[in-house]
Amino acid sequence: MHLSMKKRNRRCGGRFLAAAVGSGLAAAYILAVRPWHLRWGTAPGEDQNALPGDDLVPNPKWQATHAVTIYAPADKVWPWLAQMGQGRGGFYSYDWLENLAGMDIHNARQILPEYQALQPGDVIPFWKGAGVSVQSVEPGRSLVLGGSLVQGGDQAGNMGGSWTFILQPLDATATRLVVRSRVAGFEPEWLSALLYALLLEPAHFIMERKMLLTIKELSEKGTNL
After folding, report:
1. What is the DSSP track for 175-202?
2. CB-hemisphere CA count at 13 Å for 178?
3. Distance between CA 119 and CA 127 in Å, rounded?
4. Is the pTM value of this prediction over 0.85?
5. pLDDT tens across 93-135, in order?
């Protein structure tokens, strides 16, 4: 009887310790890691600035703003943004991960002149013909994409999310690239919040961070059209 009580106490103690460790890790993620990766690369307050495209999803359930300083003028960065997309220049991230999902992404390491003339309404493909559409474009300054990854882009106004790229010249030789993603929720809200926190947020951060660092590397190499 005495040994049985000891075993029960050890099991209870183990469960309590596991619960405490789990709670501590969850709190650390929520209080420290999550705020860091949702605004990775931004200067203090930069993630709060209003950007073109914010009005497309005025009350997002999820938003991330990432940034990187590129030591190249904006006109050397822009061509890499203009040619993004599946079947175009790719997304400059971990294409092997994207291709595990059957996205057939091939990241370009050179500028592709045939994909430089973006116009509002153009579709940027992501996967098997599904993509988002160009909502606004100002070459060398801004690109706003929006939609719901529907077939043929988002021509019906069903705005599930927005993806904004801003080029801010710092001087003649450096550019700030700021990228913001905003996503609308879905019902039930608890499920969308859970999926965003567990899947969308960390996956988006990992892929977009790689994307920004690759664009920085390619732009700084000075590839010309």
Report:
1. EEEEEEEEE---SSHHHHHHHIIIIIHH
2. 22
3. 20
4. no
5. 999 988 887 889 999 999 999 999 999 999 999 877 688 999 9
Provide the angle, in degrees to the nearest 10, between the axes of the packed helices 201-220 and 74-82: 130
Tokens 């307050």, residue located: 45
Sketch the domain layout of the chain as residue ranges.
1-38, 42-220
Cβ contact 210:93 at 8 Å: yes
How many other CB atoms are there within 10 angstroms of residue 59's CB atom? 7
What's the CATH number for 42-220? 3.30.530.20
φ, ψ at 125 (rounded to 5°): -70, 145
**pLDDT per residue as tens digits for the range 56-83:** 999 888 899 999 999 999 999 999 999 9
Largest Cα–Cα separation, the chain: 82
Query: Taking the CA atoms of the chain, what radius of gyration do you get in angstroms?
Result: 21
Write out pLDDT tens, residues 129-182.
688 999 999 999 999 999 875 444 444 445 689 999 999 999 999 999 999 999
Helix, strand or coil for residue 5? Answer: helix
